[in-house]
Design goal:
818 residues, six-stranded antiparallel β-sheet, 3 helices, 60 strands
Length: 818
């Protein structure tokens, strides 16, 4: 007995699916598809693009991370589709450099910059700035920038015109009225000097002079008397305590007269008295102390209602001269510098941009124009050609600062329609990040990578594109000039494809081949030729760290003959279907190799072939044509779960497939009859029934007397006939009366008929619902000595399905070997 649980190795077909319209699918952005025109790899997002006109060429589409869809066809410039616009891919660079003329007017100079001489301190609001004088025909205007009560800088608003000399910069307003302070000191005895020695002083046991010190409590000093009776010096034995007033000293006693002493002090700040608090103080002013020698005093001020109301001394310090408390806040001062707006060597260029993306899509810069302005110029007059690219919306002008050729700064951004512009930016203004329209762009990056010329447009001859990791990748040169070249975009810039971003598959398989398809698969990009499959991986910069290895000695028929499901690529080539899981290849189509081997598939129409994978039913479908077909009306189907093969036929051609979100469900959408549709089990198209067929291989007969075919099925709702036929000895025609007459299990036969019929209706009998199993007993002549004996039998089943799907779980055949 043999048990068949899979439909495998078919010579005829089974069609359990039909093409059904799905109203929600009309919002998928393959709405413009018509048969044979468009291929979609990978799936597109849900949106409507009814305005797209694609012509009669076949496009390869991929989705960018910017929400746009990109399409290329290998013949013309590709397209970029969003919800609102369709534009060509990339922005063409200017064909010629701009003309930049120098303008000079003798002494007609401008204020080039304003420098701070003193930032000041204590400002409560930005002061006004006036630039006057210097013989200007038009005065410059400027604005002060306030930070922490100081004028951190003065920014030019306009630079004025016609200066023959240096103007004066006046800063006024925003500065508070300063307080008046009185400094109270502590006095310390430092030295006592003899100003006049006097005469007649004696120093002995009975009489000697002494020093009287006032205002220095406990201070004690001893005078010295020379041989002439003069006070020659005073030694301080103890300086005593500090005093709040000046300290004095005098000589008393000793019998003499006329001596005079001078006291030297040290000073410390005892307190500071506010005699006038000033006004408009937003913050406490900075208190400092001024003296010829010494230091160390520290004090802080407090402000109430804009007035300084107190000063607190934190440290008195120590000074040789009397310190004075002052407010350190001062008014700011600045000077202007007059020169030509530009002086030096400059590089100038322009580029075109498109404002339909965010950020804007730019072109490469034009050729650089060198301008010698070492004598100084007042302005640059730009003139450029109007862009030929209809996508362009603006022109951007860029130039360097003087005497450097590394970094460009944007001068202006000008809407299409204008081709001239005059500007007089100084280097300071050009590099001011607060300037309207400011931007900078290194010509090349420090590592040598392209920067200002990285926005190259993809050549039109490349016909396959995908997104892999952070870049777009392109291959399949339709001209044949670069059959094994790969181009890749800049990071997250699918439209920036400089010619330098090229990798070439090095032929190492002994035969010439060419790239046909690109398949993103997890961490690798499969680069598939006609007969070989390569694996590409990279880390950051493909030119430097890409690794390309030959993985499989199999290829692909066309760029549409692949699909991925569950991390596995399913690919059809000239020899069958195989799976590649990223490391190894597994042949899948041995059961139906006769389709490839015996010419059932018409390879002359392979441009129409395509493959889809549906995760919902875990089925991979290969849509192909026979010689009698003009479009793909059939598919070879492989179930990944059961490894079963069958063929499906459809009432109309399925020309393309894609994945899309329909409602909230991700599904496969098929283009059938020019309309997006889905495959639905058991649903007719336009109400017509769907036929299905199955035939097993030849099963060797045995001598077992009990011969039967058992069918396990799901009962249907309503009448639904299953027709059983038996083909003996490889005959293409079923045998009459091969199945015994009605045995009560569900099958019925008629005399002379070539088939037994099973009505799978669950309520076909009044005795109760069908159990879902029926047997048909069959005959066969087994005399090995007779040339007319039966050697083997093939089981064939057929029927139609309508609103209820036909589900057959298994077929058992007894009386056969296996």
């Amino acid at each position: 007995m043999i048990q068949i649980t899979q439909f495998k190795g078919l010579a005829t077909n089974v069609s359990p699916y039909s093409v059904a319209p799905a109203a929600a699918v009309t919002q998928v952005n393959i709405q413009a598809l018509v048969p044979g025109q468009l291929s979609v790899r990978p799936g597109l997002t849900t949106s409507s693009y009814t305005s797209v006109t694609l012509g009669s060429t076949s496009y390869s589409f991929f989705n960018g991370r910017d929400g746009a869809t990109y399409g290329i066809n290998g013949l013309t410039r590709g397209i970029r589709i969003t919800d609102t616009t369709t534009v060509p891919i990339g922005v063409q660079a200017p064909a010629a450099a701009a003309t930049v003329a120098k303008q000079t007017t003798g002494t007609n100079r401008v204020v080039k910059s304003i420098y701070m001489v003193n930032e000041g301190a204590g400002y409560y609001s930005p002061p006004s700035v006036a630039v006057s004088g210097g013989g200007a025909t038009v005065d410059a205007t400027a604005k002060a920038e306030l930070r922490d009560g100081r004028i951190s800088g003065i920014r030019l608003i306009t630079r004025g015109e016609g200066y023959t000399g240096t103007p004066e910069v006046t800063i006024s307003g925003g500065f508070p009225s300063m307080p008046t302070l009185q400094t109270n000191l502590n006095y310390f005895l430092s030295e006592i000097n003899v100003a006049a020695g006097g005469a007649g002083y004696t120093q002995n046991a009975t009489t000697s002079p002494s020093v009287v010190i006032t205002n220095a409590t406990s201070a004690y000093a001893v005078p010295s008397v020379n041989e002439r009776g003069e006070i020659s010096g005073v030694s301080i034995l103890y300086a005593g305590q500090s005093a709040l007033t000046e300290i004095t000293a005098a000589i008393t006693g000793g019998g003499g007269a006329g001596a005079q002493l001078e006291v030297s002090h040290l000073y410390s700040v005892a307190s500071v008295t506010v005699t006038d608090g000033g006004s408009d103080h937003a913050t406490p002013p900075l208190i400092t102390f001024r003296a010829d020698e010494g230091g160390g005093a520290v004090a802080t001020a407090s402000v109430t209602g804009g007035t300084v109301d107190a000063v607190t001394v934190l440290s008195g310090g120590l000074y040789v001269s009397e310190p004075e408390a002052i407010v350190a806040d001062t008014a700011a001062a600045a000077v202007a510098e007059v020169d030509y707006p530009a002086r030096g060597q400059y590089l100038c260029c322009h580029r075109y941009v498109d404002d339909t993306t965010d950020p804007d899509a730019p072109s490469n810069i034009s050729e650089l124009v060198e301008i010698d302005a070492t004598e100084g110029v007042t302005a640059f007059a730009w003139q450029w050609d109007a862009p030929a690219d209809a996508r362009v919306t603006h022109t951007e002008l860029w130039r360097t600062t003087a005497d450097q050729g590394v970094v460009l700064y944007r001068v202006a951004r000008i809407a299409v329609g204008t081709t001239t512009y005059t500007e007089s930016l100084s280097d300071e203004q050009l590099t001011d990040p607060d300037r309207d329209g400011y931007a900078l762009m290194p010509i090349t990056l420090p590592n040598g990578q392209l920067n200002a010329r990285r926005f190259g447009v993809l050549p039109s001859e490349y016909s396959v594109g995908v997104i892999f990791q952070d870049r777009a990748w392109f291959a399949a040169d339709s001209t044949g000039a670069k059959p094994n070249s790969l181009l890749f975009s800049e990071v997250n810039e699918p439209e920036s494809v400089p010619a330098e971003n090229e990798l070439i598959i090095q032929e190492n398989a002994g035969v010439q081949d060419s790239i046909v398809a690109l398949i993103p698969l997890a961490s690798q990009l499969l680069v598939v030729q006609t007969e070989h499959l390569y694996s590409l991986r990279y880390v950051a910069q493909p030119v430097i760290d890409a690794s390309i290895n030959l993985a499989v000695f199999r290829g692909i028929l066309t760029r549409k003959c692949w699909a991925t499901m569950g991390g596995v690529a399913f690919i059809v080539d000239s020899f069958g279907m195989y799976a590649f899981d990223g490391s190894s290849e597994s042949p899948l189509s041995a059961a139906v190799d006769n389709y490839w081997r015996d010419g059932i598939i018409d390879f002359s129409q392979s441009a129409k072939f395509h493959v889809s994978a549906n995760l919902a039913d875990r089925v991979v479908r290969f849509f192909y044509c026979r010689s009698t077909d003009s479009t793909p009306v059939r598919a070879l189907c492989y179930c990944v779960g059961t490894q079963a093969w069958w063929e499906e036929e459809y009432p109309e051609a399925i020309t393309e497939t894609t994945h899309a979100t329909v409602g909230s469900r991700r599904t496969v959408v098929y283009m059938a009859g020019g309309t997006p549709k889905t495959l639905e089990p058991g649903v007719g198209d336009g109400g017509s029934a769907i036929s299905w067929q199955y035939r097993s291989g030849n099963l060797p007969l045995t001598a077992e007397p009990n011969r039967a075919v058992g069918v396990l099925y799901t009962p249907t709702t309503g009448a639904c006939d299953l027709k059983l036929r038996l083909h003996y000895n490889g005959s293409t025609s079923p045998r009459q009366n091969a199945v015994a007459s009605d045995r009560g299990s569900g099958f019925t036969t008629a005399t002379g008929s070539t088939e037994a019929v099973l009505d799978m209706d669950s309520s076909r009998s009044g005795l109760g619902s069908a159990v879902g199993y029926a047997e048909a007993h069959y005959a066969g002549r087994m005399d090995p000595r007779s040339s007319g004996g039966d050697r083997h039998v093939a089981v064939a089943m057929a029927g139609t399905q309508g609103p209820t799907p036909v589900v057959i779980h298994g077929v058992t055949v007894s009386g056969v070997a296996g």
